[in-house]
Description:
By secondary structure, the chain is α+β, with helices and mostly antiparallel strands. The protein has a single domain (79-103, 113-395), classed as Cathepsin B, Chain A (Alpha-Beta Complex). The protein is built from twelve helices and eleven strands. It has helices at residues 3-26, 68-72, 81-88, 96-99, 121-132, 146-164, 176-186, 201-210, 229-238, 248-253, 267-275, 350-357, and strands spanning 118-119, 218-219, 222-223, 260-263, 280-292, 298-314, 320-324, 345-349, 363-366, 386-388, 391-395. Strands 1, 5, 6, 7 and 8 form a five-stranded antiparallel β-sheet that branches. Strands 2-3 form a two-stranded antiparallel ribbon. α7 (176-186) crosses α8 and α7 (176-186) runs parallel beside α9 (229-238). The longest helix has 24 residues, at 3-26. The protein is globular and about 55 Å long.
Amino acid sequence: MTRKEAEIVCAILLCVAAVGAVITWTGDRTVRQPQPAPQIPGTPDAIQPAEQPPAGQLPAVDNPEVPPDAILANPGYRPQPEKTEGFLRTLRRPTLREANPDLYRGPRGPPARDREPILLYRALYEAHRSRFGTDWKVGAQGIGDCVSWGWAHGADIHLAVLWKLGVSSEWKPAATEAIYGGSRVEAEGVSFGGWSDGSYGGYAAKWVRDWGILFRQPYEGVDLTTYSSKRAKDWGAYGCGGRGDSGKLDEVAKKHPVRHVALVTGFEDAAVAIASGYPVPVCSGQGFSKVRDRDGFARPSGSWAHCMCFVGVRYEPRPGLLCLNSWGTSWISGPKFPADQPDGSFWVDAEVATRMLRGRDSFAVSGIEGFPYRNLDNADWVRAVPRRTDRPTEYALALAP
């Protein structure tokens, strides 16, 4: 071997030694190129998991009233028709007509000219005053969690009806955050629901039926007395109870299920449901004007990917359903019928209501076995009856003397 060849061999050996030293130092900590995190199926769409909500969405701030235009820019209703139809197939009697055909027969059936309006919100007025000593007023959602608000209003009013009739011994309002998180995570069967807002009627129905309701009260580890949009955002990502709850509040919710839900697909369905005390959370893309006309109706206008709740019915001469929104008290103005109609609500013409309900994502709610008929026509707390004959434009409240 020549001297030059020996120098080449030494150089090769030095390189091999250097590589061996590097391998020894890194051990099993071999550096790899970062791989993208797998997408996790959520509700309503799959997004990347994150510790905090990404910037650029509607902020989850505990604001007493977020402007409706800001809410509409971040839709809270994101229909999933295939999943809703799948849920319906799990129900033995999926539609209201199948659940109780008697609701549609004889004097209980289609609206008659001489029938009084049915105003279920008055039971809520009385229940709230009995429990808290204050007048009820509608709240305002802070993110795109309208589906949970529509369903909470349905649960609140139905429970108030049961309380008024003596079927329930007490009344408590439902916590929207639990419905929102439960519909997006537990009902979907996923561990992470994503940070983008939204849910839909089918899996809100699944949550309240198969799990249940949490109330506006303190629980171990969390106080749900007051609505929190920040909490709604967190629970929408990680489910009822939020991250780290490990299903504890799911088990509490199961003690208070909404026993029955039934699909409502038109004005007649909603009318007979409300006439027996069953509110109807309604999910649709129909928008409305922000001014009521002289009869208290709002004109259909534009498109809202939104959930509200039908809580009253009126018949001739202008049939319609009373729609309770979740944007606070001042987003809409104009005349009301009757005078104690809740601020923030409006009447919807029958044909418009049918168009909304044909989306097959709206349900009547019942906390008792099935949907039995209940005669509410002659109850002071649901009828628009004059308080005094000399002041016929005033209407009696359930709680009025």
